[in-house]
Amino acid sequence: MFDGFQTDTIRLDDSDVFVRYGGSGPVVVLLHGHPRTSSTWYRVAPALVDRGFTVVCPDLRGYGRSRGPAPSPDHAAHSKRAMAGDVREALRRLGIERFHLAGHDRGSYVAFRIAMDHPENVDRLALLDCIPISEHLRRITPGFATRWFHWFFFAQPDTPERVINADPDAWYAGTPDRLGEENHAEFRAATRDPDVVRAMLEDYRAGLTVDLADEEADRAAGRRIERPLLVAWSAGENLDDMGGDPVAVWEAWADDVRGPAVIPGDHHMAEEGPDELTDALAAFFGDPTG
Question: Which of 126, 131, 130, 129 minimizes the C-alpha distance to 53?
Fold first, then answer.
């Protein structure tokens, strides 16, 4: 995987950020979702390098090989703002101040927070398979609660850790033929680590508490995404059925919304529709190869 890329673990004040990076040209930062690591981009990242981009793929705080502080009672240690701070500072250590940014699933919320808090660092933003957490919670239906029950299960204290760690391979489905052997092996190693599982659950606990409060504060203050925003989702995700038209939802939060881009696959679009996702991102970020 990631032929020609370098890897590094960047030591920050209270966390270590594992990153993969390679290429030359405009910088694209790719943020993975749950329960993946940066290896989920193993087909998209090299393809973007071939299109003339520099590509940086971090593991989010607590996921994969990145490590953060112990969970805090208010879950702020694993908030999207804390994760965003990790990514932004790791990029600075690599000498990168401005970049295009794409996030998938939980990584999309980290990307959203970077764009909201630090628009001076972001050129263009792509948010994949998401609408704001607060918007989802405003639109809760029996269908949403049934299909996305994990949001609320993961938020419970202690029980999710006991259930998942009893048999992580059964809980987190995925096979080498679908994920690719090396990507699958990295994903499995991560989900078999109780510390990683705890951090991933804290991500969701933060989502329903401190992250929700941050979004509500943004709304009350009238803060919006200033940069061009591409909204994309997986064909099998039915995101428009779960929360309404995602483009329309994001128009309430951003000044310049593009899309939709519908990518083949059920959810993990970087693995299930890498060619179509690469095309959509390269076109939006301004393909240097034309």
Answer: 126
Whether 136 is catalytic:
no
Which residue among 8, 240, 256, 267 is the active-site one?
A: 267
Alpha-carbon distance of 131 to 254, in angstroms, equals 12
**Under DSSP, is residue 265 helix (H, G, I), strand (E, B) or coil?**
coil
C-alpha 259, offset from chain centre: 18
Per CATH, the number for 6-285 is 3.40.50.1820
Pairing of strands 27-31, 99-104: parallel
Q: Are 44 and 278 in contact (CB under 8 A)?
A: yes
Nearest to 253 by CA among 278, 223, 211: 223
CA distance 155 to 204: 6
Whose structure tokens read 């995404």? 225
83-115 pLDDT per residue, tens: 999 999 999 999 999 999 999 999 999 999 999
Quickly count: other Cβ atoms within 10 Å of residue 15's Cβ: 20
The answer to whether the bond into 35 is cis (omega within 30° of 0) is: yes
Residue 105 annotated among the catalytic residues of the structure: yes
Catalytic residue among 59, 86, 105, 214: 105
Give the SS3 label for residue 131.
coil
pLDDT in tens, 58-90: 999 999 999 999 999 999 999 999 999 999 999
Continuous H helices in the chain: 44-50, 80-93, 106-117, 133-138, 142-147, 150-154, 159-166, 168-171, 176-179, 181-191, 194-207, 210-221, 239-243, 246-251, 269-272, 274-285
Q: Which DSSP string do the residues of 61-128 spell out, in sequence order? A: TTSTT-B-PPP-TTSGGGSHHHHHHHHHHHHHHTT---EEEEEETHHHHHHHHHHHH-GGGEEEEEEE
